[in-house]
Amino acid sequence: MATGFCDRTEAGRRLAEQLQHYGDQSDVIVLALPRGGVPIGFELAKVLHVPLDVCLVRKLGVPNHRELAMGAIASNGIRVLNEDVVQSHHVSKFALQKVTVDELHELKRRGRAYRGDRPFPDLDGKTVILVDDGLATGATMRAAIAVVKQQHPAKVIVAVPLAPPDTCDALREEVDQVVCLVMPEPFYSLGTWYDHFDQLSDLDVRTLLETAPAFLP
């Protein structure tokens, strides 16, 4: 695909080329949004020789239209809402709360599956590179940014292979830097821009985390 990527591995390697100046620095950490962001983060961590971990966030999908994000929630309960989507789809408070509770349960399950008893890394004073395999509305990334900022990092960078231009513009207001390789218009969907966009399992994610060269036990 001329304007896209073969797969997440290629996307991660191409993204790493734009972030090489952060390599071999002890105060840099890559945090990937599971599941799709983990192969991207794995390639970044491998090339830059920095630690890899996950930032657990979940999209809040509109009931009966789950692919459309009305917001996102993080494992510590931080919730980011897209009020325009909530209102335009007439999502009730009850329905919103039910989706929120369901996704919190899934976040806890994934936390046990991916991290076990290992605590979330200390980000105080660190340069944090938040990665995903792409962004649409940016809701899940905004939740991740909120989680990371609670720990007072020195710098927050969002790095993704692709996203709509307006999403990148909005995120630049919230972080120190946004690195995005492709900003297509019209955007369509993430899978449109990958030749191979396979779904990942929990085992895939855990294996990548545990085999990353700079993995912190």
Describe this structure in words.
The chain is α/β, with parallel strands linked by helices. Helix content is 36%, strand content 21%. It is built from 7 helices and 8 strands, in the order αβαββββααβαβαβα. A 5-stranded parallel beta sheet has the order 2-1-6-7-8, sandwiched between helices. A 3-stranded antiparallel beta sheet has the order 3-4-5. α1 crosses α2 and α4 packs across α7.
Instruction: Please outline the major beta sheet.
Output: 5 strands, parallel
What is the number of beta strands?
A: 8
Gap between N and C termini: 38 Å
Measured as a percent range, the helix fraction is 25-40%
Secondary-structure element order, N to C: HEHEEEEHHEHEHEH
Rg value: 16 Å
Widest β-sheet, arrangement of strands: 2-1-6-7-8
Rounded mean pLDDT score: 90
State the helix count: 7
What amount of the residues lies in strands? 15-25%
Which term fits the overall shape? globular
Low-pLDDT regions = none
Helix/strand/pairing class, anyone?
Answer: alpha/beta
Summarize this structure as a short list of keywords or feature phrases:
single chain, 217 residues, alpha/beta, five-stranded parallel β-sheet, three-stranded antiparallel β-sheet, 8 strands
Please provide a brief summary of the model:
This protein has 217 residues and is α/β, with parallel strands linked by helices. Helices cover 36% and strands 21% of the residues.
